[in-house]
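Morning. Coffee machine broken again, so started the prediction first thing and wrote up yesterday's gels while waiting. Chain of 367 residues, entered below exactly as on the submission form.
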Amino acid sequence: MADRRQVLRFGAVAAAAPALAGAASAPAWAGGHGHGGARTKPLVVGHRGASGYRPEHTLASYELAARLGADYLEPDLVITKDGVLVCRHEPEIGGTTDVASRPEFAARKRTVVLDGVSVTGWWTQDFTLAELKTLRATERIPAIRQQNTVYDGYFEVPTFQEMLDLRKRLSKELGRDLGVFPETKHPTFFRSIGLELEKPLVRTLRRNGLDKRGAKVFIQSFEAANLRDLADDHRVEVPLVFLSSAAGTPFNDPRTYADYLSPTGLKELSGFVDGIGPEKGQIIPRKPDGTLGAPTSLVADAHAAGIKVIPYTFRAENSFLPTELRVGADATAYGRSIDEQVTFLRTGIDGLFTDNPDIGVLARSLV
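Came back before lunch.
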């Protein structure tokens, strides 16, 4: 009998549902940086693939997202010791792979100061690609997504190039041009240890013919300085998206996210970015009782500056939903996530990041 890891090594999703009606890929934003272009139908971005149904950042997760109708697939990018971009949510991989159970790598566990915070675990920069390929992905939040744990141990950690190869194959098979929405993770940190992300990212996109106007690619980052570097020094042609948190500042940046997303800050951002990716509570905050409040002016302010808005992250489980949209007392059960996404889409957002792309496609059809 074939080893199960070999059988499923490329993350094939044989039983995945066909692409839903109305899931044809929305066009990329037109124009250069800061010129978001005309209004198109909202984008559905498969957040780390279809991470509500498969362990995140695996080829299985990305493939299922495409088959469920996502317009774009989102890989978070970190880098190996030998300079290869791989798809992981963080450089620390103790929570998303089986590395903790591998005695041959026990000595690799160490504490690293990541963006000012001490974190203990196993780090991609301490592994060559060949070593990383011996590991297998695991579900990141098993207490909430126990059903995903049945896939633990089956899928490799994919390289960015492998993800792009999958995107190319599925675009041909599904008859629609799938987009890719890479995020540079902790770029300042990686640059500080001599493993910058920008050059291999741009090189990979150009080698695949994807750094050009009209290509279905957006590059995103929580660091404004990183996006400025991509625009000014690397002269990327594809749109850039500035991600923000509801509080705090980008790493090593004195300006707060709130300042960047003020009308004045948005006008400045429009000089080198095309979109923002705010935490969804910055679009519709929650009241003290956990219910949805009134929408803020952020969507209108961003559109006035010529910037598109794609908030994150929409998930189906009760624990992630506003209290009035939860169903029952089980935090892991599905609530009224379609209603949540419809409510946000009606604010005029230009897309959304969702762990459940099929729900995003359906919600979009109802607006």
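The CA atoms of residues 310 and 352 lie 5 Å apart. Going to sketch it on the whiteboard this afternoon.
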